[in-house]
Every structure is written in structure tokens, then in C-alpha cells.
Design goal:
The structure is a homodimer. By secondary structure, the first copy, chain A, is an alpha+beta fold. The first copy, chain A, has 6 helices and 3 strands, in the order H-H-E-H-H-E-E-H-H. In chain A, 62% of the residues lie in helices and 15% in strands. In chain A, strands 1-3-2 form a 3-stranded antiparallel beta sheet. In chain A, a hairpin with a 5-residue loop joins strand 2 and strand 3. Chain A starts with a helix and ends with a helix. Chains A, B: This is Helix-turn-helix transcriptional regulator. Chains A, B: It comes from Flavobacterium endoglycinae. Chains A, B: It holds the Pfam family HxlR.
């Protein structure tokens, strides 16, 4: 099932939130993503970013600042996720409304 | 993050594949979903279906057959997932092509 391929890439608690953060700001530093994505640890963020890199969704740039900063941006392939993330966000809002309405 | 609400509902290895199976056939029996979704166990499918029911995405109907059969279909709210599942499927196909191209 091809839908499973998408979910394998986007699965887990953090990936979509990380991609949304990078997607929203176009370029985003590691430290900024750490604050954007509530509750994620430094170690977990490094692991998730590495997986997203392996899947060709983001690219990593080391900036020659003092101290050194590492920046991430979506690849062309990663950008194709933009609409999907928008749809997921919209659906999330509608779903939350639906569920809270009926409680 | 609203996008996290969507992922919380759709997360895990099986949910999207189960929803795709029900979505594709409109109405689907438990035994059919079991064969549609490769590798899922009877126990896991029951658990996932219960969660989808709690999230108001599917409804369960017991058919008065011999032996009794249980059938599932998407609720109106669940149907709003149709486009999202289609987008996820399309993206999955494009992603697989991208990754296999570069190996």
C-alpha cells in the first residue's frame, strides 16, 4: 500500500511537527526547531532530522557563525509535502472541533 | 500544533491502511480488512478499529448472518479523510519513485 510509504516517512510523534516548523519558516535553525516542537528532546530532534535527511526531505547547512549554527530547509522533494501538511493541519482543526463538540 | 492532532489520530503503523481499505470499498467486513491490511493480527485490528470508532471516524454494524459478521464504514466525519488519504497515497507513490531513482 503506497499510503503506507507516506506514513512510514511521516510516522511517529514528531516528524510532521518538525516538517511544519521548517516549512513555515522556509529555513530554520536546530535551536529554533527545538523550541517550536513542544516536548522534544535534543537527542530525539537530532535523530528525527537525520531520518528526514536520509529520506531526502530536508537539507542541512552548517553556518560559519560563532558559535556554529546548523540550519535546515526543505528540499524540492520536501516542498511537495507542503500541501499535505496544510491538509493535515486543516483536518486536525476540524477533527478537534468535532470531538470537543460531542463531549 | 493542530497538525499533531491529525497525526495523533492517524498515527501508528496500521490506521491509515485500515481507513484506506474501508474508504476504498465504502463498507468492509472485519475479515476482509484483515486480509487487506498485510501483516496485521486479529487482536491488533480489533484494537485499532475501537480507537477509530472512539475518534468518530468509523461506525460498526453487526449483521444478522450465520455466522454473525461485523461490518465497518466511514462516518460523515471519517469521509472528510478521503482526500487526505488520496493525497497521502499519491505522495507515497511519488516518494517511493524519488527514493528508488537515487539508489
Amino acid at each position: 500500500m503506497a499510503v503506507q510509504d507516506s506514513m512510514d516517512v511521516l510516522n511517529g510523534k514528531w516528524k510532521i511537527s518538525i516538517l511544519s516548523s521548517i516549512c513555515y519558516y522556509n529555513k530554520r535553525r536546530f535551536s529554533d526547531i527545538l523550541t517550536d516542537v513542544e516536548g522534544i528532546s535534543n537527542k530525539m530532534l537530532s535523530k528525527e532530522l537525520k531520518e528526514l535527511e536520509t529520506n531526502k526531505l530536508i537539507i542541512r547547512t552548517v553556518l560559519n557563525t560563532q558559535p556554529i549554527t546548523v540550519q535546515y530547509e526543505l528540499t524540492e522533494h520536501g516542498l511537495t509535502l507542503k500541501t499535505l501538511i496544510k491538509n493535515l493541519t486543516d483536518w486536525g482543526i476540524a477533527h478537534r472541533k468535532k470531538i470537543t463538540e460531542q463531549q
